[in-house]
Amino acid sequence: MLVPLHMVTVLLAGGLAGLWARRMLASLGWLSGFESGVLLVAAVCAAWAAGQFAYMAAVRLLKPTRSPVPLLCDMAAQCCALALVPWLLGVSLPMLPPVLLKVEPLLFLGVFLGAHALLKLVVFFAALDARPAGRLGGLGWLACAALALAGAAGFQRAFALTAADPGAAQAADAAWTRVGGTWAEAREVPEGVGARVFGDYAGEGDLVLYAALPDDDGAEGEGATAHMTVRVERGAAAAAGAADAGADITPVHTHEVPLEPGKWTELRLPADALPANAGAVVVAWTGRPAAEWMRQLGVHPPSNTGRKLLVAGPWRVARGADTPSVVLLAVEGLAAENTSLHGYHRDTTPNLKKWAETASVFEQAYTPAPEAAAAAMSLATGLHPLRHGTVAGRTAPPPAGIRTLAEHLRARGYHTAAFTEGRGADGDDLTVETAFSRGFMRFNDVFPMEPGAPEPGGNAPPTPRPAGARVTLDRAAEWVEERGGDPYLLCVRLRELRNPVRLARYGEGFLGKGRTPAPVDIYDTALLDVDRQIGAFLARVEAAAQGRPLLVVVTSLYGLDFTEPDRGSWRRGAAGRPSLRESSLRVPLLVRIPGEAGRTRKTPASLADVLPTVLARAGATPPAGLDGADLQRQGDFRDLISVQGNPLGLSVRSGRWRFTWQSGLDPFTLASTGAESVVEFMDVYQFRAQKAGADARAREPELAGEFRRQLEAFLRAHHAAQTVQPPEPGPAPVP
Question: Which of 164, 505, 531, 598 is the S-S candidate for 349 at Cβ 3.0 to 4.6 Å?
């Protein structure tokens, strides 16, 4: 009777030890899948039984006995495994100091093994004092040990094959997912099921991925811990994008990731742990065990719990490179004419003026389009709007083979992030749905708002107001400070000057007392506050550089026209609207390049020049056929063409002249939608001197006709090359 009971206690102890091993390996991320967990428990149980039976055989063979005392003592030793049950059920020891919480599972195991070892000694000494008997019982225990050992070997082999089977992982597609206002191209990875990510992971540098809880994950809404593992598959099959059981599977990295709600958490895989010829990466995870004891004990498959983790990446990032980090700051609506940096009569930009003392200042910089989306895509691609496909607030995917600045730098191992203040409600927004988001690891398009002043009477709730540049720049600076010594590309778009309103936080500024402020007074006051915020942001970025070279570009996507309130070319509107006039097209452009002295440049420059300038300093060769040129290498003379509107209007800056022509043509089909007309022909230098553009068509009719033919030929040539395609209907705007 005692022998069967003893075997039951042995199997109980072995089962509990197997469950402990399964939960421990799952917590470390070394185990995923239900079948492999069951096989592991069986293998550990059988191995434990084999060891226990072998011990009893040794005792009976060395000192034969018929006394039940050794058997009873060994049964007590097996029952010591009950010390593992509290931890298996999620019970913690609150009295432990924080330093011991990480080794809490080992403490439970230590109690079990320590007590078990003491009782095993009792078994031995009890056998010594017992009555002698035959050795037949010892041979029986030895046979049981051999059978258990054979079973353990079989289960272990099956477990190894199941745990390492690439078929346990599922190929997963990435989709833009927002967590805490920041988008990333993430995959939904079910708990206990690996996600296979194919890619080109060759080259130097670490692998970085981001993990986050879904925004609607109520079960983990207060934070959680994910235990992640990454396997790298290599070989011809993996490299070709096929899941092959013969592929070499190498466990690379395990990590415990504390996840905060509403935030992406970075996980880095060291380069020295990555094998060569990596063709795929498998990411798996398990949650920290808590009250879900059935799942933790393996009663039902973890994949059936429905919990998912968001995983973005992996991406290759450089480590210890000498290439400069890049900060690109674009202030929408920042007109060069209204900055003290460019001689404005009000001191609206004292911080930028001081910072520009060590930067190259381009006095004649122009936007390719006075619209945010079109100008931003020119900045990102180095191409004219008619070539990259974003015109008049309508976004068409760039032609095949065109890569953005973020894509170029990410391929060179840069962290990439953008903070764009997109509302998702108009075509000028740089939301995640636009082509501008391509190449960014993180993309934040949240337009920050704050409570406004209470409404008169106090009955209605306060109207929300824009929170301003301070919030966006603070978020961007925090991201920079998290990068450490890694190279990065940071793009920031501020929209506070797009439609400035009078806000209390600006102070009096240039508003004056006792009079109704004009639109330009409100704008200048808002500009003074934005300048202050930019100064603080640049100081934080430079302090976080830690000796790494830093390339900074400060510019605007377009300016605003306050010269004539109702003069908006074919876009008619109130004062401060963008147009194809000089005030709207001429923007500040400040570039601080490591190792190059700052100076004032009078050479005409374009936002399309930013991409080749940055790539040249990052050690990359700019693509051929760009409209932009390296700002530090270009010649003294060039024509700059800007475009806007539907019907399509074009303006050319050539030498001292600016010629603006409304074509009357649809920008995508070149079908006639109205009569063509010459909007403006003026002397740029005369405009700057008098702050008014005198129409020169009467004085220079032949030159005006030549400019018109030049613009028409430019338009026809780009359309003939089919670089502009009608955009496909897109999804609904992101709220």
Answer: 531
